[in-house]
Design brief:
It contains 7 helices and 11 strands. Strands 5, 6, 7, 8 and 9 form a 5-stranded antiparallel sheet that branches. A 3-stranded antiparallel sheet has the order 1-3-2, covered by helices on one side. Strand 6 and strand 7 form a beta hairpin. Helix 3 runs antiparallel to helix 4.
Length: about 210
């Protein structure tokens, strides 16, 4: 049965946990994102947890930093960019194909949930190809002007950065100038990502809606 109400994010724990349990029905996830909450399994004991961290990570188009080496790579047209060409493979690679991790928080249940979201138009993949082969990318949630980045992977250097940069350019062309990155990873930070207070994030979310 879908979740019909979440606790206030103001009552989240220091780690950002808003609630534990419930289900991953499409309606539950849509409600969560509309309130600045996202699912993130902790472990086998708590396979479904809901987070709203403070501070919150975001990446904005007008702060996007593209290094000179990355600019050269883009000009060489070494990579090809695509959106939603192979969502299932992207989320699978994010869960199992990353060279920097031996375990994953992307459970089978979470994969199934986001594939269902994608089939309904609420999840996307941004993809990098080299010689026709998928070599990097990311996936995330999308609903109108609310866009998140959930996870990235790469099999070639800079392939995930290439996908994220081109995603930001694509979104900008559609009038969307920031995405929710939830946390600030080294990749996001190098591209200009920053942390903002959760209260400021919720204001941006409200305006996006």
């Amino acid at each position: 049965m879908p979740i019909d109400k979440f606790p206030s994010v103001e009552n989240a724990t220091e780690d950002g946990i808003v609630a534990i349990g419930g289900d991953l029905a499409i309606e539950s996830i849509l409600l969560a994102y509309s309130q600045g909450i996202f699912p993130w399994p902790i472990n086998e004991q708590y396979p479904i947890a809901w987070f709203s961290p403070d501070p919150r990570g975001i990446l904005e188009y007008d702060r996007l930093h593209i290094s000179k080496s990355m600019q050269k790579l883009i000009k060489k047209k070494h990579f090809e960019f695509a959106i939603n060409r192979n969502f299932k493979e992207v989320i699978y690679q994010c869960a199992h194909g990353r060279p920097d991790q031996s375990a994953t928080w992307i459970t089978e249940a979470l994969m199934d949930a986001y594939i269902k979201l994608h089939n309904r138009g609420y999840a996307y993949s941004a993809e990098t190809y080299h010689n026709g082969k998928l070599c990097g990318g990311l996936y995330g949630f999308c609903n109108g002007h609310i866009i998140s980045g959930e996870s990235m992977f790469y099999h070639e250097s800079n392939a995930s950065k290439f996908a994220l940069i081109n995603l930001m350019k694509y979104l900008h062309s559609k009038g969307i100038n920031w995405i929710d990155t939830q946390m600030i990873t080294s990749v996001v930070k190098n591209l200009g990502g920053r942390e903002i207070p959760r209260t400021d994030f919720l204001k941006k979310l409200k305006n996006a809606m």
